Amino acid sequence: MTILNIVILVSAGLFAVIALVSLLKGVFTRSSIAHSPYGVGRQERRKSMQVAFLRAVAFAVIALILFGVYGLSARPDDLLSTEPEAGFTPLPTNTSAPAPATATATTPAATATTAATATTPPETPTATVTSVPTITPTPPPTARVVAPAGVYLREAPSPDAQEIEHLLAGTVVTLLPGEETVDDVLWRQVRLDDSREGWVAAELVDGAVFLEPQ
Question: Under CATH, to which class is 142-206 assigned?
Answer without folding.
Answer: mainly beta
